[in-house]
Amino acid sequence: MAGNKKRRKPLLISHTRPPSTPKTLSLSSQATRSSIRKHHVLQKQLHAAILNGDGVLTERLQAQLEASGGLQKYQEASIQGQSSERGGDSSKVLMEWINEHSSQYRRHHTAKPEQLRMLEVGALKVDNACSRSGIFIVTRIDLHSQHPDIQTQDFMKMPVPSPATLAEDGFDVVSLSLVVNYLGDPSSRGEMLKRVSSFLRSSGETSKDEAKSAFPALFLVLPASCVTNSRYLDEERLEGIMITLGYVQARRKLSKKLVYYLWRYEGNGAEQAQTASYKKQEIRPGGSRNNFSIVLQGRFEIPHKMLVMTENQLH
Predict the structure, then answer these.
(1) pLDDT higher for 159 or 100?
(2) Tens digit of pLDDT for each residue in 289-310?
(3) Comparing C-alpha atoms, which of 150, 264, 296 is closest to residue 200?
(4) Low-confidence winner among 21-30, 121-130, 164-173, 189-198 (lowest mean pLDDT)
(5) 273/125: higher pLDDT
(6) What is the mean pLDDT of residues 181-193?
């Protein structure tokens, strides 16, 4: 009967009109990884095409990169991957190491440690753990800045401080977090690692504080598969490359997806030079391996003493 029909509750006005503020679209974790992976593959193919002088393929790959959103789309995906909701801020690991070291320092000293100067290459955000800590004075650079506090600068073209200005213009830490693997050419990766030391000021130039005994240093973050599943690179070979460049491994952390390193630079004042070469050489065969590699060639200064830092030095 008509009198027994249930009346429908009137819809709220908010259910009948679009929201006044559009919701921000967010890629899923899987879509984020897929976008980043696709960009890396296209970049690698593009670099190979340029080296081979294949103009037709180069134009086609450039068009594919532009159609997929190019560097800006890659950065958007990377920023989402670094969001706190996804636990993607790699600088948190560096802060964990530094906080452990600082707490040990505070047990024996009343003076507050001096701030450290950091160069963050490939910076995407200005509010990561290092930026919020108050420990660092951060200079941020990226190829395509998306924030006024991030300078648009190619690290490979960045002016190198002169010996006379290194103490003032140099850095205690250079951060290369998921930057080296972005380069498509193994030789370019080696050149980037080689260039870092030109921006590092020595501990003597920085201060006499014991709190800075872990510096100058390179904070290096790579996808774990670059060293755990590559035909051409494993951790032993990476350490050999870094020792050749004048570094000792101070800290290391391996997670499911990433590997984090703190490499202390010991290269200043080397008394000998050696010719070292790390070519693209298969060291771990297998059909399921990736082809990531780092190529290093040339003459490098080798420190007279390569002392591996103990936990007591870092804590």
Answers:
(1) 159
(2) 999 999 987 654 443 333 333 3
(3) 264
(4) 21-30
(5) 125
(6) 92
> Would you state the pLDDT for residue 55?
75
**Of 194, 195, 196, 216, the residue nearest 204 (C-alpha):** 216
SS3 105: helix
Measured CA to CA, the distance from residue 213 to residue 208 in angstroms comes to 9
Paired residues of 220 in beta bridges = 176, 261
Contact (CB, 8 A) for 232 and 239: no
- 8 A C-beta contact, residue 218 and residue 263: yes
- Strands in 16-72 per DSSP E: none
Token couple for 103 = 């707490």
161's tokens:
């401080």
Tokens representing 101?
A: 């070291």
Give CA 269 to chain center in angstroms. 27
Q: In what order do the strands lie in the sheet with 116-121?
A: 151-152, 136-142, 116-121, 173-177, 217-223, 258-265, 247-254
The answer on pLDDT for 163 being more than 50 is yes
Strand partners, 121: 141, 176
H/E stretch holding 99: helix 91-108
The C-alpha angle with vertex 273 and arms to 270 and 275, in degrees rounded to 5, equals 145
| pLDDT > 70 fraction of the chain, expressed in percent and rounded | 60
Distance, CA of 30 to CA of 35 (rounded, Å):
9
Which amino acid, 293? Answer: S
The DSSP secondary-structure symbol of 178 reads: S
